[in-house]
Design brief:
The protein has 302 residues and is of the alpha/beta class. The protein is 42% helix and 16% strand. Bound molecules: NADP nicotinamide-adenine-dinucleotide phosphate (NAP). It comes from Colwellia psychrerythraea.
Length: 302
């Protein structure tokens, strides 16, 4: 598995991150067994970075990971230190809103640590921007979380470039990542400055739902049947050319970007978790990258 270093930190992550949003399923014994198998498969084939959030499966995903970690510690006592464990908070239920208050974020981190059965998070991300956030106050919360040893590094998720700049201006350490939706449907990061900012500041863009719009409808899907057919035809042409699956090409399309996008793989199917790695060895042609973009857009590049 390729590795990538995050900004000026010592954090070294697998290039593909394993996403834990779906691992608990409906939290039935069968779903939990499936989730543990997915996690074990990811570990075996070199994923070292696991992405969580306090809200995934209403906490069950973190708890399942914590259960597995307890089992794994019997076999490999220093397993925790070999992993990058990221969690997120800031989306608050009842009523649903975004909340970056010190109390809420600190309690969320503490609850995540308990569920995950760890003493610290390698990275803590603000899940979605709280429009009412005060950068200085968030900076203080980060300092306290770091001083307490509960969090080593910080990042953001779904932040616009200006929101990221605002928060960064109040921090004395660099943010390591911005976790955003990037897939063939949602390409706004190509033009809204997000990927440019990441390159400029050395921040790693992490792509959530990387296969959205191809293997399942993207969030807020606007693709028509005609769009889907055009994209599928170009993907099929390229899949033959590169001797791989269409969904692996979609990952390669993200990996090609010079901002060093790290896709989060969310499949719970062992074969797919393993096969995703093949995308890392596809030498993707510049012209084909644009042909897929054209198929997605439905018009030639001007
Ligand atoms: N920051 C945020 O706001 C945010 C939002 C959403 C997600 N995330 C993170 O991003 C991670 C990845 O998101 P995701 O799970 O949506 O990612 P994904 O890897 O794009 O999608 C995974 C889903 O696609 C299915 N799938 C994968 N390959 C397939 C194929 N070839 N054919 C048919 N179905 C296929 C999987 O089914 P199987 O399980 O059956 O293989 C699974 O349901 C999450 O786990 C979470 O950590 C972050």
């Amino acid at each position: 598995m390729q590795k990538i270093k995050f900004n000026s930190s010592k954090v070294i992550s697998s290039r593909l991150i394993y996403g834990c949003m779906r691992i608990a399923g409906d939290n039935t014994p069968a779903d939990k067994t499936k989730g543990k198998l997915a996690l074990r498969t990811a570990l075996e084939v070199g994923y070292t970075h696991f992405d969580h959030a306090d809200i995934y499966g209403a906490g069950h995903c973190e708890s399942l990971f914590g259960e597995l970690l307890t089992e794994l510690k019997q076999e490999t006592p220093d397993i925790r230190e070999q992993l990058i464990i990221t969690s997120k908070a800031g989306i608050r239920p009842d009523p649903q809103r975004y909340d970056f208050s010190a109390d809420y974020l600190t309690t969320s981190v503490e609850n995540s640590l308990k569920r995950l059965n760890v003493d610290y998070l390698d990275m803590f991300l603000l899940h979605r921007p709280d429009y009412l956030f005060n950068a200085e106050q968030v900076a203080q919360t980060f300092e306290q979380l770091k001083a307490s040893g509960k969090v080593k590094h910080f990042g953001v998720s779904n932040f616009s470039p200006s929101q990221l700049s605002l928060l960064q201006s109040a921090l004395d350490k660099p943010l390591l990542v911005n976790q955003i939706e990037i897939n063939i449907h949602n390409i706004s990061s190509l033009t809204d400055g997000s990927l440019d900012q990441c390159q400029q500041l050395g921040i790693t863009p992490i792509a959530w739902c990387p296969l959205g719009g191809v293997v399942y409808p993207a969030w807020g899907n606007t693709f028509s049947k005609a769009d889907e057919q055009r994209i599928a035809a170009e993907l099929a042409r390229q899949a033959e050319l590169y001797n791989c699956s269409t969904w692996q090409l979609i990952l390669a399309w993200l990996l090609k970007h010079p901002a060093n996008i790290c896709p989060i793989i969310g499949s719970t199917t062992p074969e797919r978790i393993v096969a995703a790695k093949q995308a890392l060895s596809i030498v993707y042609n510049h012209a084909d990258w644009y042909r897929l973009l054209e198929a997605r857009n439905g018009y030639p590049q001007p």
